[in-house]
UniProtKB/TrEMBL annotation:
Gene3D superfamilies: Nucleoside phosphorylase domain. This is Nucleoside phosphorylase domain-containing protein. It comes from the Bacteria. Residues 26-174 form the Nucleoside phosphorylase domain. InterPro entries: Nucleoside_phosphorylase_d, Nucleoside_phosphorylase_sf.
Length: 185
């Protein structure tokens, strides 16, 4: 059995309530809610794989509005005691997956302005979201394989939240198509 995970129910609107071979978890947005909900789920049930689907802002202009496999995640909203952005005082700067793909920057706020993108982009990420680092970190603590698929909903610039609201349903359909192709359900 696999666990299908999304931060928001709106990211799963294209998915049936009962997807064969998958349990479903909506965690709520942000790193704390993601950590709490996924920890509870993995503590209660043994899963063969965690499959995360959701939306992300593209901060790399070369990334089109498509679905991307995530290969690594970093936190863009932390600094260590020396003030180095992206470095946490006790967590790894990067959590990596055995997948070819895109690095995503995770933070606890919705990125919607060019100034924020200018700070985040040099960290090496192509996408930005609010949960992926937490999902990967938790799954790795439990020793459960995890796969993350993100659909680009916006450009993380001024007005991105309006773009996200307009795009989330289409992104859900893109993600549903990818799950259908990759898992046959």
């Amino acid at each position: 059995m696999r666990l299908l995970v999304a931060a928001l129910a709106s990211e799963l609107v294209a998915f049936p309530d009962d997807l064969p071979g998958f349990d479903r978890l909506v965690t709520g947005p942000g790193k704390l809610q993601a950590t709490y909900a996924l920890t509870r789920a993995l503590d209660a049930t043994t899963y063969d794989e965690v499959v995360v689907v959701g939306t992300a802002g593209a901060i790399d202009a070369r990334l089109d509005a498509d679905v991307y496999e995530i290969s690594a995640a970093l936190q863009h909203d932390v600094t260590d005691i020396d003030g180095i952005v992206g470095q946490h005082v006790s967590l790894p700067p990067l959590v990596e997956l055995d997948a070819e793909g895109v690095t995503i920057a995770t933070g606890d706020h919705f990125v919607d302005d060019a100034e924020a993108v200018a700070v985040i982009r040099p960290l090496g990420a192509g996408l930005v979201d609010m949960e992926t680092y937490a999902y990967i970190w938790v799954a790795q603590r439990f020793g459960v394989p995890i796969r993350v698929l993100k659909a680009v909903s916006d450009r993380a610039q001024d007005g991105a939240i309006t773009d996200w609201h307009a795009a989330v349903t289409a992104c859900s359909h893109q993600l549903r198509d990818r799950i259908r192709v990759d898992y046959g359900v």
